[in-house]
Write a structure and sequence with these properties.
Elements lengths: L1 H28 L3 E2 L8 H10 L3 E7 L9 E4 L6 E2 L4 E7 L5 H7 L9 E4 L1 E3 L19 E3 H13 L2 E3 L2 H5 L10 E8 L8 E4 L5 E3 L4 H11 L8 E4 L10 H10 L3 E4 L12 H19 L6 E3 L13 H5 E4 L2 E4 L2 E3 L22 E2 L10 H8 L12 E4 L14 E4 L1
Parallel strand pairs: 2-5, 6-10, 6-19, 7-8, 9-10, 10-13, 13-14, 15-18, 20-21
Antiparallel strand pairs: 1-4, 3-5, 11-12, 16-17
Helix pairs in contact: 4-6
The structure holds zinc ion (ZN).
Amino acid sequence: MKRRRLKYKNILIAVIIVLVLTFSISLFTNKEVKMIDLKEKTIDEIKEYANKVNLKLEIKEEHHKEIKKGKLISQNIKVDSIITKGEQLTVVISLGRLGKDYYLKHKVDESGNIPIMMYHGIHNLKNDDTAYTGGNIDKDGYQRTAEAFRGDLEFYYDNNYRMIKLKDYIDRKIDVEVGKSPIILTFDDGLKNNIRIMGLDDKEELIIDPNSAIGILESFKKKYPDFNVTATFFLNGDLFEQPEYNEKILNWLIDNGYDIGNHSYSHLDFTKIKNKEVEQEVGKLYSLLDELIKNKYVNIVSLPFGSPYDVNHKNFSHILKSTYEGKTYETKSTLRVGWESELSPFHKNFDPLFLKRIRAYDNLGNNFDIIHNFKLLEENRYISDGDKDTIVIPSEKIDKIAEQTELEIIKY
Ligand SMILES: [Zn+2]
């Protein structure tokens, strides 16, 4: 009896040994290793870990606003996911906050001015075809050649200007690469040559004249993807003078990153008409846009003839807010026919209700033409820190900036 029990005991031990061995072997040969959270680890600990679990480690470094220098920003392998041997582990380690050296190197100044360019017609002509200087078609350069417009765009790009949307400027959302400056393009009057339609392709999509303003802008979009090509078009009642394509054109523009605003229904001078007519002029155009692109246009009015010249004019409040045929409208901002660049939206005197524009024309560097204005901007130009959530200002200019709560102000 005793002997038999002993035999059973031996068998049981043998079975246990076999089980333990099999389990251990399977652990060694087929072990699933799960990724750990590296957040609290030092670089040395990360290196050690990568070595232990057989990962190919790549370390990148970036500046970060909140994460302290030497701490982990991110890891490419998710916590708890199963690691395969030899897999690449990329970790991004913080270099800490951007410092004074970085801002100095890029000459960051977000208290500087921003140009809002005013265009009208772009004509498919060479500069030599006109009787005026620099591709101006009329004496004042309201109408320009396609060659001149292409030249302007090259000039802006080469001088480190990058486009932003007018509405984003008004909303104080400026997203421009570090060391670059924002520029805003606007077009008034909805001329056919802004987006001339040559027909529809076999998919019923618009064929746009490559020498119209939009055709040229689209070619720059391809040529310089970091230019962030965009513009706002201010229209009258006849929109782009191609009624058969009204809906298609407006939707195409919005879908392709452009904006549509209000230039009044029939382009009358707001100071020469009565309140009621002002309401009709503004309200009727908003209603037309509501019919075609509801909630997709911007509530900004470009003032015909830049008039009134004064926000205290008795008709001005009717442009901003009133009702037309029982419908209430509200205007966030108006555009003047100005001559020079506008203030940073963070400036304490920034007033989005009445914005100045630069007439985009040539006058041999005089009388506030493009060259003249951009020379002036060299003295006082908005230069981005590349972070839309911070306002970075040289210490000596800090008193230019409005106090505020939404964004962090950094002086250096
Ligand atoms: Zn106009």
